[in-house]
């Protein structure tokens, strides 16, 4: 937030008029904003000059990989290269060289990637003038410009913040801003006050060998609806945590063979709850803990996890979140293990690890609250 304050303070308005004679193919939907006035010189979509409104931020750069980089003589030449991309360019970095400038064309802007804005005395960062400069969104949501029609939308950076600001919102899929991009995620808006973002959904629908576990990345959230998707938690939970800190991890599962639902969450206000959080994010080692080990039972919970768990971090687990992050030694787990096709949801006395065991039927859901 202080970065954005600094940004507003330092932003100066600059109108850069681009005049060029080449006929560049362009159509209406590629325009950045009404401030860029493409003036068609022919009866078709070609034009020979245009305008772009830019603002700049001195001694800052947006630290992302540029989509292109040019050596240019002046600022307008850089703006012109930006214009030429017909909308893919969202901002530019202009680095002063001994002779001329280095012009970086960027596919992102400060609105989706503000955490990448860094100080750099040799660089001026340019953004395209847009409606978000008028701060139209309510507190807690972020304004994302739509350059094509000079409008904007307001985005939330977590299901929890969304629920807090709009308490009437029902459970369902929402666009949430995670690590610089809007992603369609499933938010449980009901349980325990709501605001839970689903990051893993795995089910074995009937007595059968469970499907091989499908790990994916932040762009694969849509697969949650298939019932066989787990976000690669070792890699991406720390990414989510850095863009929107994770306060709680929730484990929900149900196995018809035991007829018991597990629905528990870590409680970061306790020593062990905070420890499990850090363990899942790869920042602590496995250890013993004192029941209830920082585990809080939600209203649906019928398990004994919160009273019996006494260990944090199973041996040989690959994914810290989906393997037994905490358990009662040799007995109760919430556990998905691919190699053995062994899927445990709390209960004791599993008859064997055989692949066709009915004990593997059920569903497992993993949530975070940020
Ligand atoms: C650019 O477009 C204007 C308006 O149609 C036209 O009068 C002018 O001749 C064009 N210039 C060039 C160099 O094509
Ligand atoms: C559009 O105008 C340009 C310049 O006159 C011309 O080269 C091009 O063929 C035209 N395109 C169409 C689809 O008419
Ligand atoms: C910027 O550089 C280009 C290419 O050298 C040149 O044609 C243009 O006149 C320059 N514009 C300004 C405003 O100096
Ligand atoms: C601008 O474009 C977006 C996306 O194409 C659309 O959803 C929105 O309704 C448009 N807004 C206006 C004011 O035209
Ligand atoms: C999870 O997977 C099941 C299929 O097994 C599906 O019915 C459900 O809609 C998925 N998504 C959520 C949010 O539970």
What order do the SSEs take from the amino end to the carboxyl end, as H and E?
Answer: HEEEHEEHEEEHEEEEEHEEHEEHEEEEE
**Total number of helices:** 7
Q: What form results from the Cα inertia axes?
A: elongated
Query: Could you tell me the radius of gyration in angstroms?
Result: 26 Å
What is the beta-strand fraction? 35-45%
- List ligands, each type once: 2-acetamido-2-deoxy-beta-D-glucopyranose
Give the total of beta strands.
22
Termini Cα gap: 17 Å
Please give the largest β-sheet. Answer: 9 strands, mixed
Please indicate the count of domains: 2
Query: Helicity level, as a percent range?
Result: 10-25%
The chain-level mean pLDDT equals 83
The secondary structure category is mainly beta
Signal peptide: 1-26
Keywords: Signal
Protein name: Fibrinogen C-terminal domain-containing protein
Report on this structure.
- With 370 residues, this protein is mainly β.
- It folds into two domains: 28-136, Hepatocyte Growth Factor; 160-369, no CATH class.
- Helices cover 15% and strands 38% of the residues.
- The protein is built from seven helices and 22 strands.
- The protein has helices at residues 2-10, 75-84, 110-113, 159-165, 233-243, 271-280, 305-308, and strands at 12-24, 47-62, 68-72, 91-96, 101-106, 117-128, 141-146, 151-156, 172-178, 181-188, 196-204, 215-216, 228-231, 248-255, 260-266, 287-288, 295-297, 311-312, 326-327, 334-337, 342-345, 362-369.
- The strands form five sheets. Strands 9, 10, 11, 12, 13, 14, 15, 17 and 22 form a nine-stranded mixed β-sheet that branches.
- The protein is elongated and about 70 Å long.
- The two termini are 17 Å apart.
- Residues 5-49 have low confidence and may be disordered.
- Bound molecules: 2-acetamido-2-deoxy-beta-D-glucopyranose (5 copies).
- The site of one 2-acetamido-2-deoxy-beta-D-glucopyranose has 3 residues, from loops.
- InterPro entries: Fibrinogen-like_C.
């Amino acid at each position: 937030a202080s970065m954005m304050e600094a940004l507003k303070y330092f932003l100066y308005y600059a109108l850069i008029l681009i005049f060029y004679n080449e006929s560049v193919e362009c159509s209406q939907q590629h325009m950045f904003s009404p401030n860029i006035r493409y003036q068609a010189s022919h009866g078709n979509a070609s034009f020979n000059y245009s305008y772009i409104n830019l603002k700049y931020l001195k001694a800052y750069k947006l630290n992302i990989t540029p989509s292109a980089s040019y050596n240019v003589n002046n600022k307008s030449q850089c703006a012109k290269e930006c214009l030429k991309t017909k909308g893919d360019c969202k901002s530019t970095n202009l680095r002063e060289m001994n002779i001329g400038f280095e012009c970086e064309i960027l596919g992102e802007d400060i609105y989706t990637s503000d955490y990448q804005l860094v100080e750099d005395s040799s660089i001026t960062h340019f953004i395209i003038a847009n409606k978000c400069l008028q701060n139209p969104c309510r507190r807690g949501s972020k304004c994302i410009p739509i350059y094509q029609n000079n409008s904007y939308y307001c985005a939330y950076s977590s299901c929890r913040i969304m629920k807090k600001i709009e308490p009437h919102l029902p459970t369902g899929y929402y666009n949430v801003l995670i690590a610089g991009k809007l992603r369609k995620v499933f938010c449980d808006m009901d349980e325990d006050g709501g605001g839970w973002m689903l990051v893993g959904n795995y089910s074995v629908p009937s007595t059968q060998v469970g499907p091989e576990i499908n790990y994916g990345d932040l762009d694969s959230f849509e697969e949650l609806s298939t019932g066989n998707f787990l976000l690669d938690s070792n890699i991406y939970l720390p990414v989510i945590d850095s863009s929107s800190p994770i306060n709680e991890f929730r484990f929900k599962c149900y196995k018809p063979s035991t007829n018991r639902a597990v629905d528990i969450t870590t409680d970061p206000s306790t020593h062990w709850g905070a420890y499990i959080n850090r363990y899942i994010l790869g920042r602590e080692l496995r250890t013993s803990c004192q029941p209830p080990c920082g585990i809080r039972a939600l209203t649906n919970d019928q398990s004994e996890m919160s009273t019996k768990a006494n260990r944090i971090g199973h041996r040989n687990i690959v994914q810290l979140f989906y393997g037994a992050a905490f358990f009662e030694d040799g007995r109760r787990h919430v556990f998905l293990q691919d190699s053995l096709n062994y899927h445990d949801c709390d209960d004791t006395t599993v008859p064997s690890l055989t692949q066709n065991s009915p004990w593997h039927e059920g569903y497992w859901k993993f949530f975070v609250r940020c």
